[in-house]
Structure formats: structure tokens, C-alpha cells
Amino acid sequence: MSAETGPATPIAWAEAQRVAFEAGRDAVTGAERVGLAEADGRTLAEPLVTLTDLPAFPTSSIDGYAVRGTPPWRVLGRVLAGAVAPPLPDESGVAMEVATGAMVPDGTEAILRTEESTTTPDGLIEGTPRAEPEWRVPGDEAARGEELFPAGTAVDPGVIGLAAHCGYDELPVRRRPRGAVLVFGDELLTQGVPGGGLVRDALGPALPSWLRRLGATVDTGVVHGPVKDTLEAHVDAIRAALDTADLVCTTGGTMRGPVDHLHPALRELGGDYLINTVAVRPGFPMLVARVPGSDGRDRFLAGLPGNPQSAIVALMSLVAPLLAGLAGRARPELPRVTLGAPIRGRGTDTHLALVRVDRDGMARPMAHVGSSMLRGLAGAAGFAVIPPGESGEPGARVDLVPLPLLNGERR
Fold this sequence. Notes:
Its EC number is 2.10.1.1. By secondary structure, this protein is an alpha/beta fold. Helix content is 19%, strand content 28%.
């Protein structure tokens, strides 16, 4: 819907998440091939299939002797890892010493462990091989052409290691969505201690890091603002940011006060609202709009409220699923937690309540959680989701919107 002049009807929080994800998915970024070392944190643009059988050749699991026929065996030579094994002669009583990981010679009937072998005075080998085979056959782990991971899989060190194991030097991955941040508000101070009617901008320094952890690329030093509180300055700043970014996050101006110019700017830029206010507390005056770029390709603008905690609610509610879609990933499933203390509901709105997760696995509400506060956020593991019309009672199982923390869950 085109940017309108009047107030909008809030949509349900769960519906807003779905809309944001599907909008990103429909505009998924292009693909590129990168070296394995650069692929960490990216998303597979194509399925990862094996380029060869795994293992590619019969491989000894132990140090021992590849034997044929009945003992005693005459040792004909040695095969080390990295060498091509000659076949055993078509006769009984022959053996080849093999190292762990070495190629098993054709004609091998069993492998005798070194520690379970004995040597006769005339240099022959004796012993009893174990009943279970002591080598891996080609395709034991995966057959050539088998799909190991589908497109849309997040690349992590395990995927990188397996890709190298299969023989890949590069991986086809989605281009990282590019993000930019615009800070609105003449009342904001960008350095030093707040005072004299000015408050310190806490979102400009923090949002690029949040966006990077959600999968976007945000260049260092590209936070713009505070943007002057005029319509012309807002339009110019948004237009410039859209020239290089797939997603522009703005802070403040999502209401319709006397110096809130975001909605008029979107109207002037030809923006279409995908989401315009969400039935969630805190942070309800959040939005996502599709805005045409100068090259004709649509970009996205996420309008985050100016209050810091409300802005992070909007970030995790709308920007996180939008970026997942743009990156070609599946919509993340929310984990469940058990409430260890009561959390009140917010009537017909969804309540996103900051919680920590204790070592006993119980989620407990944080203190200092006003929409303008950051102390509670800085110690939280995420937001517990209290659905409309409900109150979170101790022992209740609820969804958790986890914050993208460096070391996983914060406890």
C-alpha cells in the first residue's frame, strides 16, 4: 500500500514477521562464488553435493597388514597415506603393510592389526584378523552426487570442512544484503556525556553490529546522522542511502509528530508500506516499506522507533526475518523457554518481554526494561513472547526471540 497520510491499523505481530520474511524472500540477493575461507556465515545458493564418493577409494581404518589367503603371509611392501596401492597378486599368503588412511590394495580380503600380529623367524606375518572389516569402502560416508545440504543452508565451519572433504575450493553463496543506518533527531548527541537537553545517540553505534550479526554487510563509518529535522534533509538522506544499500534502517520519526518526517519522505520517494505499525509492546510504531531505487530495483526501508529498546524490538521483529529472506534462508523457528516468574500480558497486543535464561533453563524477566532504557537489554538473552490476551504465568512455555549474541545464549 502506498505511503498514506493518516494513522494505520496495526497488524498482528506474528503476521508482521511473516510479511517481512516473505518480502525478503521474494527479493533474495544474487549469488556469487567465494573461497571456502570467505564462506563462513553466508548462505548456500545451490545444494551442496559430493563431487566424489566419500571416501573416494578403499581406505584403511588402522595400521596393519592387508592380507590375502591364509597365514602365514609374505609381506610384499608398504603403502602409506597419500600413495597409490598396487594390487595384491592373485595368490594366497601375501600381504601389504598399510597405514591408517592409506589406500587398500585391490585383492585384500582382510586387514590384520599391527598390534595383533606376530612375525615368524623367517619374516612372515601371522595372526587372526577381526571379523569386522577394518577399512572404509568408497561411498561409505556419501555417494558421488548425493545432496548433503540444500540451498538456503547457513554455512558454518562444519559445512566448510565437509565441502573441503568433498573437494570444493569455492562455494556458491548468496551475496550478503547491504545495510545502512540513518539516525533522525536534532536532540541527539553523538559524542560525550548527555546534558543540556541533548541525549546521547545509543542506536547509531549499536545498530551496525546488530545488523552484521543478523547477516547484513554494513560498512564501517556509514551511520548517517543525526539527519536534520526537515523533510528535505530526510528525503535526501534516504535517497542517498538507497543508492548503495538493500536495506536502510532509520531510527525515530515513525510517529506523526511535528518533526516526524519519515512518513512524508516515504510518500515523496514513492514508497509502499508492507507493514505500518504492529500490535506489539513495546515498539508498536515500526514499519517496513519498499522504496524504488535510482536503478529501478526496489530497496527496503525499516523504520525503527527512536526509543532504544523499542528500536531493538522492531529490529528483531521485522528486520531479522526480512534479512533471513533476503539471504535466501528459511524463516528461523523460535526456541521455547519456560517462564520462571510471571510476565504480564499487554491486552490485545503481543508483549515482547526482555528475559535472561538461568542455568536451570528458566526464563526470568529483566529489570530496567522501559522503552527508553538499555540496561535490561544489555543483560538479556532475548524477548519472551506473551501472546495477545494472555499473561505469562510461571511454568508456562513460550516462544523466545533470541538476541544474536556472540556466544549464543546470555545467562
